[in-house]
Design goal:
heterodimer; A: Rossmann fold; 6-stranded mixed sheet; B: 279 residues; mainly alpha; MetI-like fold; 0% strand; binds adenosine-5'-diphosphate; binds magnesium ion
């Protein structure tokens, strides 16, 4: 296991955002957390990433201890955020953004490594010189994924990483994520409110509702024979083949 | 800066800056003034301190395009020589106050909590205190000259710059890319230096350019009160002051020439600054 979360609890003021949640991700594994907006998914992600402190519960991340510094933590866990438009420094070109991370983590042959990372996420040398504003949302999210993979983390948290993208672009990025996992052996903690995207990327899934886990199991099983009422409702809302999207 | 001057100067400047031609003219004037200051010793037709009592209050002529003052010194040469200290003063003020104000602002926004609360409190108090009065008091205590008024005025400008920059730094800090950098493991120092500051730089340049005009007026006022550079130095504020007896004698050209130089320079810099601000 690279990630083991036990009885995680997070309270904001008097509001319980995460209420006794336990889950784990195996080495190279892939766990989805699904649930509607406000169910506490992002809070779990931010605590695992070290951006927020838990109120109670334990988190074991590989061989990290309480005394591990931020740099070793960064080599264990990385995160891709929802908003591709603001999660890159607008003044930094793609290449310099990746180079900065590689340099910080003491990687050799940085230009070669930068090119490898761009290849991995389906970008080329032309994109390397671009500023974020010259890229589309999907391309920016690819850059964010490349940046997160640069320190070669064991676990990658993706918080609604495709939610802001068009459906066709979503499919491309999901494929890319599935390929990147095979290529690098990184584990995923894949967070989404949209059950229809988990099948592409994840082996296991937990369903959260109001800060609690209502169902957990292999993706195939949860999608085909959901046990909890709440999961049935979520599964029922997935578009079926032959379904025609309505334009908003 | 001096709040009484702030609005009457910025509003028309902003209106002028909305015209392309006005901004172009203002830009050319800024360039010419800066060049004049750089090349002053080589382009001044006469020695600005050469006294010639027999030639006092000479009228406009080819040899003395602006005439001479009460001691027979060439006014054009004094105006050109004076551009150096008259520009250097505000320049030092905006560099000192810009650097200090931004450092305080970024530190407050980054550290947050009680530190930010305390800094904001102190800035509010300093902000309420008239900067020019502070500068005059400090200068009166530490002595007239170039340095004392400039340092005092820099201090007085710190809260103004810091306030604007702190608000911008807070906005910048809340952008998701900063959290992404933290997850990458970067230190707060690295993030502030390599990401926050470069992103805040354009705003700082605009802020400094706007302050330049006010600093020039404030420093001229201090010179006018006799607390700045001392005679026989050529400085525009000092020239306005020293020209007063000549006005009574019926020769107002020294005060007028220096005042016109101040006004034109201030307006030109402010128009260019407002143009940058509106982008
Ligand atoms: N910083 C915060 N302060 C107060 N309440 C918060 C904060 N972050 C999240 N919450 C609350 O915690 C609950 C869970 O939020 P979140 O983890 O973002 O859910 P999700 O990602 O599943 O939409 C929500 O009710 C939200 O309003
Ligand atoms: Mg969320």
């Amino acid at each position: 296991m690279i990630l083991e979360v036990t009885d995680l609890r997070k309270v904001f003021g008097s509001h319980v955002a995460v209420d006794g949640v336990s889950f784990g991700v195996g080495s190279g594994g892939s766990l989805a957390i699904v649930g509607e907006s406000g169910s506490g998914k992002t809070t779990c992600a931010r605590i695992v990433a070290g951006l927020e402190r838990a109120t109670a519960g334990t988190i074991r991340l590989g061989d990290l201890t309480d005394k591990s510094d931020r740099k070793s933590r960064a080599r264990m866990v990385q995160m891709v955020f929802q908003d591709p438009y603001q999660s890159l420094d607008r003044r930094q070109t793609v290449a310099s953004c990746l180079d900065e991370v590689l340099k910080f983590h003491g990687r050799d042959e940085r230009p070669r490594r930068t090119k490898e990372l761009l290849d991995l996420v389906g970008l080329d040398q032309r994109h390397a010189k671009a500023l974020p504003k010259q890229l589309s949302g999907g391309q920016r999210q690819r850059v964010a994924i490349a940046r997160a993979l640069a320190p070669e983390p064991r676990l990658l948290i993706l918080d609604e990483a495709v939610a802001a993208l068009d459906v066709s672009i979503q499919a491309q990025v999901l494929n890319l994520l599935a390929d990147a996992r095979k290529a690098t052996g990184v584990g995923y903690l894949f967070i989404t409110h949209d059950l229809s995207v988990v099948r592409h990327v994840c082996d296991d899934v937990i369903v959260m509702h109001r800060g609690k886990i209502v169902e957990a199991g292999p993706v195939e099983k949860v999608l085909t024979s959901p046990e909890a009422d709440y999961t049935r409702k979520l599964v029922g809302s997935i578009p079926r083949p032959g379904w025609v999207p309505t334009r908003a | 800066m001096t709040l009484a001057l702030a609005t009457p100067l910025r509003l028309p400047a902003r209106r002028l800056a909305s015209f392309g031609w006005a901004t172009t003219i203002a830009g050319v004037i800024c360039l010419l003034v800066a060049l004049t200051a750089l090349l002053a010793p080589w382009i001044a037709p006469h020695d600005p301190t050469a006294v010639d009592p027999l030639n006092a209050y000479a009228p406009f002529s080819a040899a003395h395009p602006l005439g001479t003052d009460d001691l027979g010194r060439d006014l054009l040469s004094r105006l050109i020589a004076g551009s150096r200290t008259s520009l250097a003063g505000p320049l030092v003020v905006i560099v000192l106050s810009g650097a200090t104000g931004t450092a305080i602002a970024v530190a407050a926004a980054w550290i947050g909590g009680w530190f930010d609360a305390a800094v904001s409190r102190v800035l509010d108090i300093l902000f309420a205190f008239p900067g020019l009065v502070l500068a005059i008091t400090v200068t009166a205590v530490f002595g007239a000259g170039f340095l004392a008024p400039v340092v005092a005025l820099s201090l007085a400008y710190v809260p103004i710059i810091a306030r604007v920059m702190r608000a911008a730094a807070l906005r910048e800090r809340s952008l998701p890319y900063v959290e992404a950098l933290r997850v990458q493991g970067f230190s707060g120092w690295h993030i502030c230096r390599r990401h926050l500051l470069p992103n805040l730089a354009p705003l700082l340049v605009v802020q400094a350019a706007i302050s330049f005009g006010y600093a020039m007026i404030d420093l001229a006022s201090i010179s006018f009160l006799g607390l700045g550079l001392q005679p026989p130095a050529a400085d525009w504020g000092l020239m306005i002051a020293n020209g007063q007896p000549s006005i009574l004698a019926g020769f107002p050209q020294q005060s007028i020439a220096a005042a016109v130089a101040v006004v034109i320079t201030v307006v030109a810099f402010t128009v260019v600054a407002e143009r940058m601000a509106s982008r």
